[in-house]
Amino acid sequence: MEDEPQVKLRFGLSLFHCRACLRPLRPPTAKCSAGHVVCDACRGSHAPECAGAAAFVPSLDVDVYVRGARLACPNAEFGCESCCVYYQARDHERACQWAPCYCPEPGCNASDSPARLAAHFAATHAWPVTDVSYAKVHRIALPRGSALHLLVSREDSQVFVVSSSALGAGAGAAAAAAAAAALACVRANGDAVAGAPRFRCTLWVQDARGGGNVARVTFEVPSSDLSRGFVAAEQGMFLAVPPELLRDAPGEAPDLMVRIDKAASAAANSPITPPA
Question: Residue range 213-238: average pLDDT?
């Protein structure tokens, strides 16, 4: 049907909703003797209109329309071009990769799809962007202040953000403060969608002076739409970098090592050994 000329029509929602469960009709459908249509699975829980109905029969003519009725994704303004079968539209919306996320920079009200938002971060706020590959180690400068460092997967264009913030009582004191570093997947609804791709990451900082000291952490990457900002020290899991490792290069941000794995393959990977 997608190859045929398309036309946009308006119908009352009740025509495409089951009279028993009130959800979108899914084929196969059935019609009661009173002429009301329900999902075939709802025969045992009749709608009030079907009370006293003696029998249900397959409604093949309704199935044709139910399979053909399509709805444009509400995220079309953010770049999604999907037009889903109506009864599957809610499932698509919950998993849509174009669902808008938000700029965490104070005073900036920008919102867009993750890919477009990454371009905004780079162009408007001059935050660095690094192309990364899964299961590969990448070296970036530990972000400072309110800045983020963006990581964009070469494989699927998934956007990740890395942030750091002062940690502990040393912040603002004469002594150098420890730092927290965290990573998140920029995705509006990833944690709520069953079967959505999951990631694990390993972050570490090592002693540039060759002392052998290493701070390292591995965790499942959370998803965030960044609507509440992204402060590393406020995340559930983060890398705590002690002051000793922050003093390796006076005036320069120490190197942060980052590796992101798809969760399905992360368990099979051998433990990560920091490079010499």
Answer: 91
DSSP β-ladder status, 29-32 and 56-58: antiparallel
Residue-level pLDDT at 36? 84
Domains and CATH numbers, the chain: 13-95 (3.30.40.10), 101-266 (2.60.210.10)
Ramachandran assignment for 219, one of left (phi > 0), alpha (psi -120 to 50 degrees), beta (any other): beta
Whole-number pLDDT of residue 274:
45
Residue-wise DSSP of 135-181:
T-EEEEEPP-TT--EEEEETTT--EEEEEEEEESTTTTSSSPPEEEE
Q: Which residue has the tokens 């970098």?
A: 241
Q: What is the DSSP string of 93-143?
A: HHH-TT--EE--STT---EE-HHHHHHHHHHHH---EEEE-TT-EEEEEPP
- What is this structure's pTM? 0.71
